[in-house]
Amino acid sequence: MSNTLRFNTANRSFYLTAKKRVDEYFRTNNISRYGNYKMVIKTIFMFTLYLSPFVLLLLNLTDNFWIQSLLWVLMGFGMSGIGLSVMHDANHGTYARNAKLNALMCRSMNFIGGSSINWQLQHNTLHHTYTNIHDHDEDIAPLGFLRFDPHAEYKKIHKYQFLYAWFFYGLMTMMWATTKDFSQLKRYNRMGLLTVRKTTYKKQLMLLVLNKMFYLGFSLGLPLVLMNAPWYLVIAGWAIMHFTCGMILALIFQPAHVVELTEFPLPCSQGNMADDWAAHQMKTTMNFAQKSWAFSWFVGGLNFQVEHHLFPNICHIHYKDLAPIIRETAREFNLPYHSKKTFIGALASHARLLYALGREPQVSTAMA
Fold first, then answer.
1. Beta strands in the chain (DSSP E)
2. At residue 294, what are phi and psi to the nearest 5 degrees?
3. For a Cys staple, 315 with which of 94, 148, 187, 344, CB 3.0–4.6 Å?
């Protein structure tokens, strides 16, 4: 990845206007842009949803595999809820005004098998800065048998990705818990991102090993020791939990950017982007199911992805109220405000793009 890519700064009127109106919203209503008691309630709910089934499993209250599987599924929902509604805000520094509390809630990533620093580098630094830009945004650079980017290399196997991609989505957090974080950390060290964060590869590798030991000992070791079930059924249940969590996370994040409406712009040969950063976010991001309160509550407001990308320093509990401001400002500046009315509609758009990206390009992607 080149670090010389630059956004156009000649005209930032849209962002400056939107920011002024958002700031005025908080000032007029005399409210903080950080989380409040609603985040505390949500945190308690998500951790309860995750840990309560776990305790029931460890207490061996049932030896029925199907009931046990249901409990593992509920844990998967709890894991995803922690990731979407607690960890995500904390890693953006918006869970609370108190920096120490944010740092503590960042550690919730350890409870779902991931690495807080890797997430911050991949998500906060790369994805939020270079959204949908080939060779810069790792969110659109999956393993070679998947193609999320029209500028990525085409392979014949991609013809079937609209069928098999969904299975691999479910493996997301299982990969975090085992191998992916180690390869990511090594790559980010080569890119110099750890130096920017004023840390070292040796220190972060040691912390990563300790985190994995804690997580695997907690989530898998305890059930293997305490549950009255064959080891292979315990491992199967653990895999069910992760598959549930991985699928939920993927199905929320993918329709936000990898859909038919969004763009995948390339820089010119000098490394300059045509748009300023904010206009770029509007063209590469999509909302969905904005009127579903329950859905939005569970997914941490990430169905308001446009608002989140423009203002990641604002807690998600405010996005619903900011959406009309951003929508109207985008209209005034003749910028798109991509949105699908339903979650199913957004998923369908993602599926259609998977299908389209699986067709063999008729022209060179280098000229696209």
1. 287-288, 339-340
2. -65, -45
3. 94
User: How many whole angstroms separate alpha carbon 278 and alpha carbon 18?
Assistant: 10
pLDDT < 70 positions in the chain: 1-3, 363-368
Instruction: Judge contact between 116 and 109, C-beta under 8 A.
Output: yes
pLDDT value at residue 368? 35
Q: How far is CA 147 from CA 128, 281, 353, 356, in A?
A: 20, 21, 10, 10
CA 261, CA 122: separation in Å to the nearest integer? Answer: 23
Structure tokens at 93: 């520094």
For residue 366, give the amino acid letter: A
Give dist(CA 354, CA 123) in Å, integer.
22
State residue 3's pLDDT score: 58
Q: Find out whether 46 and 81 touch, Cβ atoms under 8 Å.
A: yes
| Predicted local confidence at residue 245, as pLDDT | 97
Q: Which of 248, 232, 273, 334 is nearest to 136 (CA)?
A: 273
C-alpha 267/C-alpha 270 separation (Å) is 7
Radius of gyration of the chain (CA): 21
Has this prediction a pTM greater than 0.85? Answer: yes
Beta-carbon contacts of residue 198 (< 8 Å; ≥ 6 apart):
none
Give the integer Cα–Cα distance in Å for 237 and 36. 35
**CA dist., res. 319 & res. 305, Å (int):** 9
